[in-house]
Amino acid sequence: MENSLNKEQIIADLLPQKFGRRGVIWVAILVGFCLVGLFAYYRQARYGLIVTSMRDYASWGIYISNFVFFVAISLVGSLITAVLRLTGVSWSTPLTRISEIIAVSAITFAAIIIVVDMGRPERFINLLFYGRLQSPIIWDVIVITTYFFISLLLLYIPLMPDLKIMIEAKQKEGKKVPKFYLFLGSFWKDTFMQSRLSKRAIHILCIAIIPVAFCIHTVTSWLFATTYRPGWDSTNFGAYFISGAFLVGAGAVLLAMVVLRKVYNLDKYITNDHFDRMGKITVMLGMLYLYFNVNEYLVPAFKMKKSEADHLNDLFTGSFAPVFWSAIFLNMLLPITILLFKRGRRPIPMFIAGIMIVVGAWFKRYLIVTPTLLHPFLPMHNVPKSYLHYFPSWEEWAIAMGSLAGALLVITIFVRIFPIIPIKETISEFHETTHK
Fold this sequence. Notes:
The protein is built from 17 helices and no strands. It is mainly alpha-helical and 436 residues long. The protein is globular and about 75 Å long.
């Protein structure tokens, strides 16, 4: 951060800004996708899951792929906010709120997409009344709910002093302060005791969210690993899912860093040093995920049991090979290659790497779900042709794209009404650096 900055300049720079023409167009596009998705879901709710391409064998499709993707990307909150904060990494301050809003948005739509996948969504309430604790599905409901509320607290508690700053800034300018801000900011009194309790609460939440984050991804992986199917029968799935989640979360932060820095002129706060450090972290996470991928495919490929052989051949050289190798290169090999070099750890190359990581990660989740379902242990005989393959219907694509657009819309609205970089923490760090 530049030493020429002062408190007033920091506040002016970091207060929310109105959308320009590009912002309005962006919101309109996202709303359009959401509306198309809602119409597709209306058709699904009216006519049933028959409007999808899911059948007896491929009973999970891109809805579950989206669910796993959202759960994975939500891990960014514990990576940036919790891990880096607990280790005393001060440079991560401009990225903490970005990470938390991505986490809250993603975990919200992970829960929504599960309801969408249900043929009878009104029966979701039965999970509360008749749920069995022996079931990994109940474990998933518990950890997702817990993770959501911890993430929400980690988002709101550091935001309270910034809300007070926003209210005071608007009052100085003689502007009317919306009741929404007044209510949310009314809980912050800016006393020494409250500041102390706030720091302690954040510290406790950071400690708590790490095991919960590991649990949510491990339990999600168990939904697959506890099902006896080729490709899922693995004890490696927990670590495999967690490492992949860290990588896609880092990729999402790279994209947000570049876009927000450009749109809101945050060059003084999200600096080239931030890109360099996040690039190095992403390379490390990419190599870790690559290791687990090698382990996940090499061991069954070496043994080549009949059931596993059909599944792996379809991935490596069969109908899923183009998607599989594209996902491997996009999600891991190309981003690692770009970010290994200092020139690659600049905004534009990192934006490209971030897109590749996120897009590759989505297709990687699709490959975890679909190919396995089409290769059951018992061969498929005398079944309709539609059972032998799976390609999503337009309703499925519309709902999947609508959910992704919805998550982006939540992030966009948050950026519009709240400071995306912590103001009070930035001012405190500025004073600490200038008085050293």
